[in-house]
């Protein structure tokens, strides 16, 4: 996801993750696990990072190679020849950059306080590097200055180990490091503090106004050996006397006269609440100086998480992609509450949770409601309950209502609509326990109280309610807004039901049909409409706007947005003229000329015709063939997308991974099913990639997916059985799957066009019933 206007490649092997080969009939020995490749996604436009993190942890300790390019939204881009150092917070796969808090740079030679340019690293403190190794929870790199840098983590702390050559060296702690300001922008850090406390702890804070405007980070850093002397620098790299500095751009240099005498271990705790929180997190989770113990614990945690899905069969690259996808779908949202339960709410106030509760941040909801959160409900139902309770609280606290893209206690308002409502409605439909009714007042205020403040995501809501559409000559991205507001109305109706607000639920169900008001039957496309009700001209289905003022679609065009209707596919089929016309329109989408107009957003990538797998609005579309009785075309296209859009190399993700959404699409599709409408609590069957998969469901339950003899040459489903009984339907409920059992596919190189062809076997609007 991106809003430009506003908003040695293999990892080290370890016994982590997914089974690597088909289990022999004798089962004489368990196959060795295929490790994830943490460099997948760090090249191209994947925007992932290779450093150390724990699943959904607060700290992501990783190298940064640049801060000035869209390529380095995560701080890192594979192929950059030098790095800046190692910072403690990162975003995985986003199209906007932020975070990169508390940079640590192990240096030798003269003290240099500016990083220097990427193409001229010798002019600053940049470091050339080689021999990177990245494993879940551990990162190692050899620096050209002779230092071996190693990183690992606990949930809320970063642990560094630096092995220096003999002689003097120094650590630079750069509190000014961040995704850089653009030309003409005000400084993004408006206040900061850095001090060496009496007990030898380096503590500090800064307030940053990048994406999450006004967020704070507090830090408490300790060292296994006391430095021989410390220097502090403030704005303009001006040295300041004493053991503290204030200003905006602060740095500290810790000198060691014989740095190579023993490895230097650094422990760093962070908090968004206050200095006490950073110290408490550090004291609770980093109680010793044994780096290898921290690393082994991180390995144990990841081994457990990556064993939730195990696969057999497929190619070595496919198993690596699967393992890596599961890793990337286990990084965020990230923990936001301190060990004492305090966190910053979307009202910018500090709150304290009850024992056992946790708060999270970096919810990329426009992306992740589609597949990432459905994946979590399947493999991590307890965590999904935590997310649901967290989103209920955030809905209560935010002046804007249900969260959109909350980051570090700040509602960014990024993208459109408020898809946290979909996550809540899906969780409720799947029986995930939470107080859903408690979210209703905040949702109702957003949807019906026009005094509720707006961010970019909610413009045009009142006129959408009053007229049924949004005028393209008044509001940007009007067509996508109507479609996504309609979907969230569909979801919000479920929360109204939970609260007993029957009249509102009925009104929302009626309003969820507003998608019809931007569908033009004459062309078979969704189109922008003007305030007078007429269709905007000129119109081209591959275009992004009817004028040069703004775009009519959100990171998509009419080809892609026409199929964005997830909650009323039968209604869309009828509007297009029936099954045959709908199937033909899907065929035309996948075979259309892939030309895009000048100025199209870079997110429209991974094109098959005008289908764009590199961005989320298209993600469910290959599964829509199943709704018109052509499930075999879903099977063929899903296999093609898995083969063409995902690869075991740094540029192996076709678009931004978007906090695990791209990865979750691959995981669910490789298992053989996908949630076209997550709120329905059902999955449309596709084409499994492997011969066998085992999925842990919690509470000792297991889902087994079998496809014996499955190969790249056998994408078509001949028949399906569920727990030994024939299964004629092209869909299955979440309630079925989470009870555990065996879903068996018989695969073939030729399609069975009769599979799930009958209307009663197709997914429909009432499929959950």
Summary?
This protein is 24% helix and 23% strand.
Overview of this structure, please?
24% of the residues lie in helices and 23% in strands. Strand 23 and strand 24 (350-352) form a beta hairpin. The radius of gyration is 26 Å and the shape is globular. The longest helix has 22 residues, at 478-499. The strands form 11 sheets. The protein has a 10-stranded antiparallel beta sheet. Strands 21-34-35-39-36-37 form a 6-stranded mixed beta sheet. The chain is built from 17 helices and 39 strands. With 769 residues, the protein is α+β, with helices and mostly antiparallel strands. It starts with 17 loop residues before the first strand and ends in a 21-residue tail after the last strand. Mean pLDDT is 94; it is low at 1-32.
Entry keywords:
769 residues, alpha+beta, ten-stranded antiparallel beta sheet, six-stranded mixed beta sheet, 17 helices, 39 strands, 23% strand
Per DSSP E runs of 2 or more residues, the count of β-strands stands at 39
What distance lies between the first and last C-alpha atoms, to the nearest angstrom? 34 Å
Percentage of residues in DSSP E strands: 15-25%
Poorly predicted ranges (pLDDT <50, ≥5 residues)? 1-32
Global geometry: globular
Secondary structure category: alpha+beta
- What's the overall average pLDDT, rounded? 94
Largest sheet report? 10 strands, antiparallel
- Roughly how much helix do the residues carry, as a percent range? 10-25%
The Cα radius of gyration reads 26 Å
Lateral arrangement of strands in the main beta sheet: 5-8-9-10-11-20-15-14-13-18
Task: State the helix count.
Answer: 17
């Amino acid at each position: 996801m991106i809003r430009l206007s506003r908003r040695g490649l293999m990892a080290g092997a370890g016994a982590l993750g997914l089974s690597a080969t088909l289990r022999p009939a004798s089962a004489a020995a368990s196959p060795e696990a295929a490790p994830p490749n943490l460099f997948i996604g760090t090249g191209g436009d994947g925007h992932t990072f290779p450093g150390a993190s724990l699943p959904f942890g607060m700290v992501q300790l990783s190298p940064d190679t640049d801060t000035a390019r869209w390529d380095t939204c995560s701080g890192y881009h594979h192929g950059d020849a030098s790095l800046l150092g190692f910072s403690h917070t990162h975003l995985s796969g986003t199209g906007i950059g932020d975070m990169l808090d508390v940079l640590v740079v192990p240096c030798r030679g003269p003290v240099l306080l500016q990083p220097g340019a990427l193409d001229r690293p010798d002019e600053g403190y940049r470091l050339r590097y080689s021999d990177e190794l990245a494993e879940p929870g551990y990162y190692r790199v050899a620096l050209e200055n002779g230092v071996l840098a190693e990183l690992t983590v606990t949930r809320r702390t970063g642990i560094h180990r630096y092995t220096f050559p003999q002689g003097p060296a120094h650590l630079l702690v750069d509190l000014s490091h961040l995704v850089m300001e653009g030309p003409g922008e005000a400084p993004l850090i408006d206040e900061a503090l850095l001090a060496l406390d009496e007990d030898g702890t380096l503590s500090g804070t800064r307030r940053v106004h990048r994406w999450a405007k006004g967020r704070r980070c507090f830090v408490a850093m300790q060292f296994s050996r006391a430095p021989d002397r410390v220097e502090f620098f403030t704005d303009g790299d001006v040295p300041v006397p004493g053991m503290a500095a204030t200003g905006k751009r602060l740095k500290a240099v810790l000198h060691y006269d014989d740095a190579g005498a023993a490895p230097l271990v650094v422990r760093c705790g962070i908090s968004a609440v206050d200095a006490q929180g950073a110290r408490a997190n550090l004291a609770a989770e980093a109680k010793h100086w044994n780096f290898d113990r921290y690393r082994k614990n991180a390995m144990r945690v990841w081994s457990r998480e990556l064993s939730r899905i195990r696969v057999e069969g497929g190619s070595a690259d496919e198993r690596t992609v699967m393992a890596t996808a599961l890793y990337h779908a286990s990084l965020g949202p990230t923990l936001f509450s301190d060990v004492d339960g305090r966190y910053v709410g979307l009202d910018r106030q500090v709150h304290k949770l009850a024992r056992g509760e946790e708060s999270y941040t970096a919810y990329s909801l426009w992306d992740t409601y589609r597949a990432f959160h459905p994946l979590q409900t399947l493999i991590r139902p307890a965590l999904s309950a935590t997310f649901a309770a967290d989103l209920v609280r955030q809905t209560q606290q935010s002046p804007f209502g249900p969260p959109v893209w909350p980051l570090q206690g700040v509602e960014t308002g990024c993208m459109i609509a408020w898809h946290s409502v979909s996550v809540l409605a899906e969780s409720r439909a799947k029986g995930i326990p939470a107080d859903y009714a408690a979210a209703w007042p905040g949702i109702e205020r957003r949807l019906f109280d026009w005094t509720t403040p707006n961010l970019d995501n909610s413009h045009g809501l009142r006129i959408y309610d009053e007229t049924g559409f949004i005028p393209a000559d008044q509001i940007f991205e009007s067509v996508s807004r109507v479609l996504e507001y309609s979907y969230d109305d569909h979801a919000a109706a479920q929360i109204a039901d939970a609260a007993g607000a029957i009249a509102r639920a009925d009104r929302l169900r009626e309003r969820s049909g507003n998608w019809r008001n931007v569908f033009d039957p004459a062309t078979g496309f969704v189109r922008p409409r003007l305030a007078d009700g007429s269709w905007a001209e000129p119109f081209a289905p591959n275009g992004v706007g009817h004028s040069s003022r703004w775009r009519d679609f959100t990171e998509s065009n009419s080809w892609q947005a026409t199929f964005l209707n997830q909650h009323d596919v039968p209604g869309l089929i009828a509007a297009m003229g029936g099954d045959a016309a709908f199937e033909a329109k899907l065929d035309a989408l996948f075979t259309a000329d892939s030309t895009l107009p000048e100025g199209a957003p870079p997110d429209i990538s991974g094109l098959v015709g005008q289908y764009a797998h590199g961005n989320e609005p298209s993600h469910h579309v290959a599964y829509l063939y199943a709704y018109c009785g052509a499930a075999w075309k879903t099977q063929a296209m899903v296999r093609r997308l898995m083969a063409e859009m995902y690869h075991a190399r740094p540029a192996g993700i076709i678009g931004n991974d978007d906090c695990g959404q791209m990865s979750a699409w691959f995981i669910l599709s490789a298992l053989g099913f996908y949630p076209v409408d997550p709120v329905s609590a059902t999955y449309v069957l596709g084409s499994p990639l492997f011969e066998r998969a085992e999925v842990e469901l919690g509470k000792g339950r297991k889902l087994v997916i079998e496809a014996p003899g499955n190969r790249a040459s056998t994408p078509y489903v001949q028949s399906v059985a569920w727990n030994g009984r024939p299964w004629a339907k092209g869909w299955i409920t979440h309630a079925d799957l989470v009870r555990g059992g065996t879903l068996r596919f018989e695969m073939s190189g030729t399609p069975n066009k009769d599979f799930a062809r009958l209307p009663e076997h197709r997914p429909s609007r009432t499929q959950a019933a």
